[in-house]
Design a protein that fits this description.
186 residues, two-stranded antiparallel sheet, 64% helix, 2% strand
């Protein structure tokens, strides 16, 4: 028998939001390659989209992007819109998609990060905060994507190992032959 603990899910999302916000404000501005910085708002967005999905995932992405916009010098609303779209696209397939799927999660996140970073930095070129297309691609988009993917790896590993974890006293199921006490996550 599995019991849905919605408060545990909310607490987990709140803790994830706080961790990503602190990392975005304290770590991201201080570690960079070229003009690229890690985007922890996108990390939070994708984790929320993979684990929550649906309308809640899109709202979480929008507010994470808005937090990113307010903490940087870019146009307000640009990353909010990009994160909301990313959460919508990635959150369509359902909840708990990261459970046991480390590789697939990293691949989907990597593609999303490259697309979001490229669109964001092209918009920054249009508003005059980048000097050239070469600067956008070589010094901003690729380093940002690399650092963001590196920042996502611990989160992906954690959620691929612990998503859906909790005491389960199921008999049978995936485990054939008799009873099995699943103590994963205790």
């Amino acid at each position: 028998m599995q019991v849905a603990d919605k408060n545990r899910d909310r607490r987990g999302t709140l803790v994830l939001a706080i961790v990503c916000a602190v990392l975005q404000l304290a770590l991201a501005p201080n570690i960079g390659i070229g003009n690229g910085r890690a985007n922890f708002a996108l990390v939070f967005t994708v984790c929320a989209a993979f684990n929550i999905g649906g309308r809640k995932g899109v709202l979480a992405g929008f507010f994470a992007g808005l937090f990113f916009d307010l903490s940087t010098t870019g146009p307000i609303g640009l990353m909010a819109g990009l994160c909301a779209v990313a959460a919508y696209v990635l959150g369509q397939e359902g909840r708990n998609r990261m459970a046991g799927e480390f590789g697939a999660s990293v691949v989907e996140f990597s593609v999303t990060t490259l697309v979001v970073s490229l669109i964001y930095h092209l918009a920054m070129l249009m508003v005059g905060q980048s000097s050239s297309f070469l600067d956008v691609v070589a010094l901003r988009t690729l380093p940002t994507a690399f650092l963001t993917i590196a920042a996502f790896l611990p989160f992906a590993w954690y959620y691929s190992r612990s998503a859906g974890a909790g005491p389960s006293l199921s008999m049978g199921g995936r485990h054939r032959g008799g009873s099995h006490l699943n103590t994963r996550g205790l």
